[in-house]
Amino acid sequence: MMNQKIGLIVRDAGQVDETIKNAPDQEVTTEYGSVAVKMAGKWAVVCCSGFNGDYRLPHEYNTAAYLAAFGVLGLSEVVGLHSSGSLRPSLTPGTLVIPDDWINFTSPQVTIISGQRRHLTPSFSRRVRQNLADAAWKAKVRFENGGTYWQTTGPRLETKAEIKVMSNFADLVGMGLANEANLAQEMNLEYGALCSVDNYANGLGAPGLTDEQIAAQSHKSVAVVSKVLENY
What are residue 192's DSSP bridge partners? Predict the structure, then answer.
């Protein structure tokens, strides 16, 4: 029987509920490293920081290994869950966004392609995006279907001047989605992203934005995100 599980990548263990945290692990060995995968119902879940309470910064992720693990397991459909900042005053924290494009001018271009002619046209999977939208409608949660994500290098947040420039061209800002989407496409995985808006970008909201505030909102979004995943 074909494996019906769907791959899910989260940034830290605080983005998922207890059902996933308590699910059994399966160690998967890939050519890019070993990955612990939680088998939770229909989901095969990878946490970039691990499930033991640690935290890794985006530039420390082994994204190629995370995605390759799904290929080893025979999965073809992957959802990436991302915490993001809003570049629009009307896009309020607490909203979910299913982006349909991304920008990545400054971050290192992560690739597994070498020694061959293969220039991919970047895109999200239409199927995964539609499945996410259908699930969000069923869950009756507040979401936007479409939007552009601007990836920055990190690990620092963006300056107010940088945000002014980005807000002319994108709706969301974050540090990892573009690399993930790019590698997924190179590995022939059907990939789509669900972004939780966890803060206004620097200069758009209340002054004194802190990392603790961003993490707190991200963890508040768990209940809403879980409803979408249940209906996927």
Answer: 79
